[in-house]
Amino acid sequence: MFDPLDLYTPENAVDTTRDQANVLLSSKDSEVIYDTDFNDEDENLPIDYLDLPSVHYAPSAAILCILLLLKPTDQINFQNSKSRDLTTSQLCLQKGISTELLNITVEYYQTWGNTRLDTTKKICEKIPTLSTTGETLLNYYTLILKHYEKISSSVKDQIIKEVSMRISENCGRTALPTMSRHFSFENLLKNIEIYEPSLTADNLGWKTWGSAFILSQKLINTVPDINPTKILKVLELGSGTGLAGMSWFMKWIETYGNTNTAMFFTDLEEIVPNLKKNVENNGLSENSVVDTLDWAHPKSFIDKYAVEKFDIIIVSDPIYSPNHPKLVVDVITLFLSSDGICHLEIPLRDKYSEERELLWRLLKENGLHVVKRENDQGVDDWGKVDYLYQMIERKRE
Q1: Cβ count near 29 (within 10 Å)
Q2: Cα separation of 235 and 383, whole Å?
Q3: pLDDT per residue over 258-308, tens digit each?
Q4: Beta bridge partners of 316
Q5: For the segment 188-235, what is each residue's pLDDT rounded down to a tens digit?
Q6: What is the DSSP letter of 237?
Q7: What's the predicted TM-score (pTM) here?
Q8: Are 255 and 249 in contact (CB under 8 A)?
Q9: What is the spatial order of strands in the sheet that 232-237 belongs to?
Q10: Which domains does the chain have, with CATH numbers?
């Protein structure tokens, strides 16, 4: 677990990475140990924190290269892609590492005789593996900050920026800067790219939640069973970053083309700009509407689009406040057509058990009938989560 106190570096902190003398202190008896005591001839030995370039003696370009290599790889389905699955050129392209930076780093390791890291291939394969040891790296990162604040370097600002990013990445999702994720689904040819701003001002709609990912796969699987004989009106409520709605729409276009459908992505006013960005980035803006729909005040949306009812409503993770169950049911009741279907996916958070019970009761009282129910499991930025899916229709007399 990350502890903010790990960021504190005492004034007499010592750089324990291998310096020009390549001297280490044994934590057992303070005996001086030299690199000649290590068997560096075995190139297959795993590397560790002590193999990182000395903050005091390594070229600035080598320090920057290492920081970029420790940058997380692109996220796919809430998991960082594995560096070993990428070629050296693919990894460098993804992390923004130039040939010049990489060559300077190789030269540094060759100069000090580290045979485990003396080629570009070894460096690109082994250095990223250290990114999983976040707490161990924090001391190294703070030494870099302390050192580069005091010296002049052509890449000083970039080093400070990158090391600050690496520290924030070890503080959890809420500390991360803007980021992009990629989502891959069965039966969908294209990946979906999602842009997420920093989670500031408690705007939870700027983050992609696990329920949207689980629901997306279900929605994709339903599209081939739809008979496209009429124009379908589809509404995503509380779209957030738009993953679930875009998954359905992309599968629809892939299966039937971009005709016979009217797709609406909606959320609160402050969420809509980022939602529009994601819809545009995935090539869906010309065939859809992205606009504000305030569940408590839906009249302006109704007046603007004159849409009476929707054939499909998509909702994921809509409950994180005591007043949400009534708002959710009210807006579903208002917009769902007589023969329409609502797809609802919610996480089973212990904290909101009362709100869920109220939601079930209000659905029933408003003539909304659950015709299908499935328990799901998935992951989010904070680990494994249990989910519940419900397919909802208007109760027929």
Answers
A1: 6
A2: 29
A3: 888 999 999 999 999 999 999 999 999 988 999 999 999 999 999 999 888
A4: 345
A5: 999 999 998 876 555 565 788 899 999 999 999 999 999 888 889 999
A6: E
A7: 0.70
A8: no
A9: 288-292, 261-267, 232-237, 310-316, 336-347, 383-394, 368-380
A10: 4-171 (no CATH), 179-394 (3.40.50.150)
